[in-house]
Design a protein that fits this description.
single chain; 296 residues; mainly alpha; 9 helices; rod-shaped
């Protein structure tokens, strides 16, 4: 029995604190030694942990700590001084104050924090999740009045080896679940990053395709302009050739006319020469006839 008390004192500091506060309140009320202390001194068998805590909370509601509604979004990680955020699966440093938890909600989850301020949550009733068979078998809950066998002091809150192993097993499963959730969150983040990269690559492909289309349109415009320029150049070259051919023909005609003019000039000179010869012959012939007439 003493070994169990030593083990409980090393584990449950909160239980000792609650027991001390309860003793002070009862001493101030003049109750003296309670039945729970008598049971503790007589060394009677301890009862179930959950029933004892519920009876203590029902006997003196003022001894219970004020429950913060921020725990709706958090869960404790066993003996670790940290709490797991159920919204983003991030581990937050936590000891006795909830300031870090509230600060995390304000910065990372402002909507949930606003909902907590607008609609404060009530502390969940632990007895609602209890096993109905356990509730039915509890004489304290069945009769409505606690008995000596079920009233224990906080120092008698002893955990059995079976409950300890179950707690360890549930803690291991919880840690495994946390690791799985963290792994799923990492995979989700990796998938989101891959999807973002794919979206950026698709957007880049669209931009490159648009640029290629614009460049192709410009190339077609330039090609059309080049074709038009080539056609214009061919037309101008043809016109130039025609003009050159006409020029050559005009030059040839000019040469021919020049030749004809020269020939006509020669003929004119010959005619002038013949005319002069004829005139000289006429003159000489006339003189000869006149002299012959006079001779006769």
């Amino acid at each position: 029995m003493d070994e169990q008390q030593v083990e409980v004192e090393s584990v449950g500091e909160d239980g000792e604190m609650d027991g001390a506060i309860k003793g002070i309140l009862r001493a101030a009320a003049g109750e003296g030694t309670t039945e729970a202390e008598v049971v503790d001194e007589e060394g009677e068998a301890p009862v179930d942990e959950g029933d004892g805590k519920e009876i203590q909370e029902d006997d003196n509601p003022a001894n219970t700590r004020k429950w913060s509604s921020v725990w709706v979004h958090y869960r404790k990680l066993g003996q670790e001084p940290r709490a797991l955020c159920l919204l983003c699966m991030e581990k937050i440093q936590h000891r006795s104050s909830t300031s870090n938890l509230i600060r995390h909600l304000q910065h990372k989850h402002p909507n949930e924090f606003a909902q907590l301020e607008d609609h404060p949550q009530k502390r969940p009733n632990k007895r609602k999740s209890e096993d109905p068979s356990r509730l039915a078998s509890s004489p304290t809950l069945a009769s409505g009045t606690p008995t000596r066998a079920h009233i224990v002091s906080p120092k008698r809150d002893v955990r059995t080896p079976c409950s300890t192993s179950l707690d360890r097993y549930s803690g291991a499963k919880w840690s495994e679940g946390v690791r799985i959730l963290e792994r799923e969150r990492e995979l989700t983040e990796a998938l989101r990053r891959v999807q973002q990269e794919e979206g950026r690559s698709i957007q880049l492909q669209k931009e490159l395709l648009q640029q290629f289309r614009e460049m192709d349109a410009e190339r077609r415009v330039l090609q059309n302009q080049k074709c038009e320029q080539e056609q214009e150049h061919a037309r101008l070259r043809k016109e130039k050739e025609d003009f050159q051919r006409e020029k050559n023909e005009l030059l040839r005609e000019k040469d021919e006319l020049q030749k004809e003019r020269e020939e006509l000039q020669k003929e004119k000179e010959e005619l002038e020469k013949q005319k002069q010869e004829l005139d000289s012959w006429k003159t000489s012939h006339a003189q000869g006839q006149a002299s012959g007439f006079y001779n006769c």
